User: Fold this.
Amino acid sequence: MKTPCLKKNSLLHTLFFLSGFSIIFIALGFSTSFIGRVFIENQDFIRQIGGIIIVVFGLVIVGVFTQVFNEGPSY
Assistant:
């Protein structure tokens, strides 16, 4: 038979667990929303940076930058 103190303690631990769980997921939702808003506001800039990276990768594949990236062994 459980004592009233043990029941109160179990209820208190349950409430703390649920509140902590809720706080974590609310914080994750806020941070995801913030990151999404930053990406939407800087969408054009991110697209331009991505285009530049793709062009640089293409130039590496073509062989324009062979000496810059040729520090390791070639297979």
